[in-house]
Amino acid sequence: MKRVLILLYLFVLISLSALAQGADQRQAEIDNQVWKPFHAAFEARDAKALNALYAEQVLRVTPAGVDTRNLFKQQNIDSYANTNASGTKTSLDFWFESRQTSDDTSYEIGIFKITAETNGNSSTFYGQFHIVIKKIDGVWKITQDWDSPNINGRPITAKDFSRKSPLQF
Q1: Is the residue at 166 inside a domain?
Q2: What CATH code is carried by the domain that includes residue 51?
Q3: How far is it, in rounded angstroms, from Cα 35 to Cα 11?
Q4: What distance in Å separates the CA atoms of residue 33 and residue 40, rounded to the nearest whole number?
Q5: Each residue's pLDDT tens digit, 59-103
Q6: Are 100 and 120 in contact (CB under 8 A)?
Q7: What confidence tens digit (pLDDT) does each residue in 99-153 have?
Q8: By CB atoms within 10 Å of each CB, which of 85, 93, 109, 120 scores lowest?
Q9: Considering only CA atoms, which of 70, 64, 66, 68 is closest in space to residue 47?
Q10: 168 lies in a domain?
Q11: Do 95 and 110 touch, CB atoms closer than 8 A?
C-alpha cells in the first residue's frame, strides 16, 4: 500500500510539472505572437501591425464606452496618422499582475505606462488592462481588450506602476 501511495504521489508531481510547463510554453507563444509585436507596433505607431494582432471580432472597452463593431481599429489608424505627422514619440511599458492560460484562451491583467513626447514636451499616462487572448487557427489573437486609468475609482499613478519592473522585449 505504501508503494502505491508513493507511486501515486510521484504521478501527481509529474503531472503538475507537465501542466506548468505547458502553461509556460503557451505564455511564451503569446509573448512572441502578441506582446512583443504589440509593443513594437505601439512604439512605432504602426496601426496596421497593431490591428493585425486583434481577432476579426473584438470586444473593446474603455472609459469612453463599449465597442463591439471594431471602430477602435479605424481610430488606431487615424490617431497614429495624427501623432506620426506631429512627430510624437511614444514609449510603452507594462507588466502582468496575473496571467491565466489554458490550451486556447488566456486572461491577462497588467499595469501599463505610456509616455508621449512631442517637441520636447512629455506626458505620461498610467492604466490597467484586462486582455482575453484566444488561439484562432493556430495563432494567438486579442479578442477582448479593456483598459482604464483607474483601479477601484482611484487614478493609477507612478507609485502603482513602480511595484514591478516593466517587461523587456
Answers
A1: no
A2: 3.10.450.50
A3: 34
A4: 12
A5: 999 999 999 999 999 999 999 998 888 989 999 999 999 999 999
A6: no
A7: 999 999 999 999 999 999 999 999 999 999 999 999 999 999 999 999 999 999 9
A8: 120
A9: 70
A10: no
A11: yes
Give domain status of residue 102, yes or no: yes
pLDDT at 17 over 50: no
- Is pTM beyond 0.90 here? no
3-state secondary structure of 5: helix
CA quadruple 122, 125, 67, 72: dihedral sign: positive
CB 124 within 8 A of CB 112: no
- The answer to whether the beta carbons of residues 74 and 51 sit under 8 Å apart is no
The reply to whether 53 falls in a domain is: yes
With helix as H, strand as E and coil as C, how does 64-126 read?
CEEECCCHHHHHHHHHHHHHHHCCCEEEEEEEEEEEEECCCEEEEEEEEEEEEEECCEEEEEE
Which residue range forms the structural domain that includes residue 22?
A: 2-161
The domain total for the chain is 1
